[in-house]
Design goal:
The chain is an alpha+beta fold. It has a domain of 100 residues: Gcn5-related N-acetyltransferase (GNAT) (Aminopeptidase). The chain contains 5 helices and 5 strands; from the N terminus they run E-H-H-E-E-E-H-E-H-H. It has a 5-stranded mixed beta sheet with strand order 1-2-3-4-5. Strand 2 and strand 3 form a beta hairpin. The chain is globular, with a radius of gyration of 15 Å.
Length: 143
């Protein structure tokens, strides 16, 4: 697989990115929403093969203390081949120098992120716009 990597937003096909997130599956995120959140992220990366978008991810960061990796997506046809690890490693390299790098994982994917050096936080808490749905999906716990 001959990959090309892109780190800026020049020429990003936001509709293709939206389709990637639906297929991954990371939910129904519109092209306009993804353009907004990727534009507001300090770091981002996109992996292409022969012009086809295969994977993407982004990191919010403050430039020194805290970075947050989010929205790591890989086409299902390319999952299990190490591409997700490459995306995370690209973002970790970009966030190097931050005192802490945080992410939250899709329930059941914790072992994937452990392989990359992440450990479970004991104090992480969140407020979601639909907490009942996130409780059902396993992202939140009331205990």
């Amino acid at each position: 697989m001959a990959l090309s990597w892109q780190y800026d937003l020049d020429g990003v096909d936001w509709e293709a990115l939206s389709a990637l997130y639906q297929a991954a599956p990371l939910g129904d995120k519109s092209a306009a929403h993804l353009q907004k959140v990727f534009s507001n992220s300090m770091f981002r990366c996109f992996a292409y093969e022969a012009g086809q978008l295969l994977a993407a991810g982004r990191a919010l960061a403050d430039g020194g203390d805290c970075a947050y990796l989010c929205d790591i997506a890989v086409l299902p046809s390319h999952q299990g081949r190490g591409l997700g690890k490459q995306v995370v490693r690209q973002l970790l390299a970009a966030t190097q120098g931050h005192r802490k790098v945080i992410l939250y994982a899709v329930p059941g994917r914790e072992d994937f992120y452990r392989q990359l050096g992440f450990l479970r936080m004991q104090t992480a808490m969140a407020i979601f716009d639909n907490p009942q749905l996130q409780l059902e999906r396993g992202y939140l716990s009331e205990d």
